[in-house]
Specification:
Distance between the termini: 108 Å
Number of helices: 9
Oligomer: single chain
Strand content: under 5%
Number of strands: 0
Helix content: 40-55%
Order of helices and strands: HHHHHHHHH
Radius of gyration: 32 Å
Largest sheet: none
Number of domains: 2
């Protein structure tokens, strides 16, 4: 007589599937043992097998602690043994962690990233001069590139200047100036020489006016 095939869908649910059904059965057998010394021996044997399944984690701090926690979880917290670590509780593991806040002062401009805000803060701290103006134009060009990568559309320089004004809390204002940013094609291809040429051209005119 041929035995009926037992499908996994008909078997009991595995609490931690990555350890497989054999480990789960060993845990259940250990829970059912009446002799405490036998339970302790079996629990240590199971921990050793679980550790062998994850040899790359042997040097990770608290790896043994994690294995014992998983052993108690697989036993549905019913295993009563002398563990080297405190037994975790079901309530402790079911607690929901506090939501992480997005580390961004201007969440509506997330596509610029936090590094842009740091660069803006650095630019604000610099003394007035050509180096500061050059950095501000570089930041504005990078903001335009970030905007285009996110929006996949054209954007007017005035929009970037307005965003830069807001991100700098009004300390950097290019809205009333004559600066032009690189065109979208050059920015996406990784070249931003057009604004640099305009920048150097503008300052060469200033130099001539001073003489």
């Amino acid at each position: 007589m041929i035995d009926e095939i037992e499908y996994n869908t008909e078997r009991p649910h595995l609490i931690i599937p990555e350890y497989g059904r054999h480990i789960q059965k060993m845990v259940e057998q250990t829970v059912a043992m009446e002799d405490r010394d036998a339970r302790n021996r079996n629990a240590k044997s199971i921990i050793a097998v679980m550790g062998n399944l994850n040899p790359h984690l042997r040097d990770v701090p608290d790896f043994q602690h994690k294995l014992w926690d998983q052993l108690f979880i697989m036993s549905d917290f019913k295993l009563d043994v002398d563990a080297p670590y405190e037994k975790p509780s079901r309530e402790e593991l079911s607690e929901r962690p506090e939501p992480l806040e997005y580390p961004q002062n201007f969440p509506k401009y997330r596509f610029y990233g936090n590094n842009i805000k740091r660069m803006i803060d650095v630019a604000i701290s610099w003394e007035e001069g050509d180096k500061k103006e050059g950095l501000i134009l570089t930041i504005a060009n990078h903001m335009k590139k970030c905007y285009l990568n996110w929006n996949k559309d054209s954007v007017e320089d005035d929009v970037i200047f307005q965003h830069l004004y807001e991100l700098s809390e009004g300390k950097i204002n290019l809205k009333d100036g004559e600066e032009d940013l690189s065109d979208a094609k050059n920015l996406i291809s990784g070249h931003s020489s057009s604004s640099k040429k305009r920048y150097s051209k503008k300052h060469s005119k200033r130099g001539r006016k001073r003489h």
